[in-house]
Amino acid sequence: MGWYNKRLAKSIWVFHVSASPCNNCDIEILDLLTPYYDIERFGIKLVGSIRHADVLLLSGIVNQKVGPMVQRIYQQAPKPVFVVGVGTCPSSGCCFNDSYNISQNREEFIPIDLYIPGCPPKPEAMIEGVVKLVEVLNG
User: Fold this and answer.
1) Considering the domain 2-138 in this protein, what is its CATH number?
2) In the chain, what are the domain boundaries?
3) pTM, 2 dp
4) How many CB atoms lie within 10 A of CB 58?
């Protein structure tokens, strides 16, 4: 696992999964790619395939319909893959928490390693969360 941590210190490839979002978090995630924040200068790159990703970025509510699809995407990722829940929805379910369709145990589908709170979280908070993940991995 040590070689993986060294590789992750230089670049992190992220795959974004939208699981029934309201799209506020998605807009903030796309804001990270603009020249103002330019996360690619830190080696963080958004990729189009989970098979190339080091981190799975999850936004939205994991409900009964989309949960198995998110789980299937997670199973296709090369291991180890780290899951980051962005926004209030993956962590608490937000205003949909008491809905019949929401899974009360969100981690029954995939384990989430890091939560970035906020509705929607600021781009600075997302950058800080990923930096903390890298610090933990590099020990």
Assistant:
1) 3.40.50.12280
2) 2-138
3) 0.83
4) 28
